[in-house]
Amino acid sequence: MSLQVVSAAGNSSLLQPGFSLLNFGGHVFFFGQKGWPKRSCPTGVFLLDIKQNELKMKPAFFSKDSCYLPPLRYPALCTLGGSAGSDGCQYIIHGGKTPNNDLSDKIYVISLVSKNSKKTTFQCIEKDLGGDVPEARYGHTINVVHSRGKSVSVIFGGRSYTPLAQRTTEKWNSVVDCLPSVFLVDFEFGCCTSYVLPELQDGLSFHVSVARNDTIYILGGHSLQNNTRSPSLYKLKVDLPLGSPAVTCTILSGGLSVSSAIVTQTADNEFVLVGGYQSDNQKRLACNTIVLEDNKIEIVERVSPDWTPDIKHCRMWFGCDMGKGSVLLGIPGATKQLISDANYFYILRCKGAEEDKEEELTAQICSQTLTEDPGDSTPFEDSEEFCFSAEANSFDVDDTDTYNEDDEEDESETGYWITCCAGCNIDINTWVPFYSTELNKPAMILCSSGAGHWVHAQCMDLSESMLLRLSEANVKYFCNEHVDLDKGLQTPKKVVHLKKQPMKPLGKKKTMKLSTPTKKSFLRRLFE
To answer: Is residue 219 helix, strand or coil?
Structure first.
């Protein structure tokens, strides 16, 4: 096992815990960036290029018939159809967190349409599901099993927000374990079916699941309710006859008490497990070999790599499978670098260089190597991880269109968790809803001063009735800092004064004597 250092200097703030990688034909694509996509890459999907130990990123595109795919962090992901890493494979993406910390319950299928040295195009389709649709979640797993010539997807585990009926002001954004139900998703008919198995008592998240044929092995994972890492090893077997599917669960011995572990395949039936945590603040530096047979699994300890002092002494680490026996590991570098979001990255190769040309992966692997956001109330919140699940190669990609985040304008002002004014006290870690219309993000209103900017309604001391009135009325709003300036710049309206005719002073009445012909002429003219 060898360790190699890689650099991602120009894109370090994008490579944050929670993103995933897609492998098409040996080319690795990044998905699930931190924050909303920017103009230079509106899809949020990038081609990764590792050359001379440096990681670069190139924007990818979606076809015109594609749906919108938000940058989901911590989703469940696996391949559907075709072998992993082939051009013809498709990826299933379910659940995850948006940049606003909303949870998704949607399921997407993404496939490669075309690729050349200049441009890569994908097609992304959202699948409509019916029946027992899994609730929005993250930190779970999804696998595809095959039985009797048919295939279904299996979703298990994860976390979700506390139900609305159980929320309190102090713990509005708290998360809980999802119920330990097993969901079968049939993509051909778009239906979901849930199964409650007596062997699965506690919810699990950030566990490892490995699928082979009609069997899924679930290893490790963390339970929020009990704050434990289960040492149990679960074997799920799915039978797909002509009638209703049958799901059985067996508890096996010889499991590992670990969460956020990483699995990579080194042979047709052999895998290597590295990384993860064995307690709330203790990394697991040991490695294991997993051997799968038709009806059994064997886990044995193997020689660990020569970890660097930085890896040994850091409190947290993260990473995921890169395919064909390689794993990408990362450790935070905030204490050593000027950029607070920067991380150090390593590629761990679990087999010799002469074995790197072996056949492509044949078993389904879905390893959730992620932990919690700092905003979530978890006992190991500093052990966030992001998911690399594909092989890194030196791609023949021109450097002309390489993405560099430094070239982008800062568009973070459009987020909900900005510092909107000098007295802003909205913090993602401590915020609780203030208005009845708020759920998991603060209400904002646009200030019309200059080019316009967003401010928090709560920071502007707006009452709920005034906020509703402003949202319904077609009027311009100015924040507290710009309202006086706006009034000073306003030109007073020109007032038009009405001209009044002066009244003639009253004097003595004058009598005019008229002759008789004149009187008749005057009276005739008066009555005509």
So the answer is: strand
Cα 39 from chain centre: 18
pLDDT tops 50 at residue 369: no
Task: Check if the beta carbon of residue 312 is closer than 8 Å to that of residue 304.
Answer: no
List the binding residues for Zn(2+).
Answer: 420, 424, 447, 453, 456, 459, 479, 482
Q: Is the dihedral of CA 402, 403, 405, 409 positive or negative?
A: positive
Diameter of the chain measured on Cα atoms: 142
Tokens of 443: 């209400």
CB atoms within 10 A of CB 239: 13
Q: Do residues 193 and 184 touch, judged by C-beta distance below 8 A?
A: yes
Task: Give binding residues as ranges.
Answer: 420, 424, 447, 453, 456, 459, 479, 482
Q: What is the pTM of this model?
A: 0.69
In 3D, which of 312, 375, 330, 327 has the Cα closest to residue 14?
330
Predicted confidence at residue 372, as pLDDT, reads 42
- Can you list the alpha helix ranges (DSSP code H) found in 373-503? 464-472, 483-489
Residue 110: how many other CB atoms lie within 10 Å = 23
Sequence length of the chain is 528
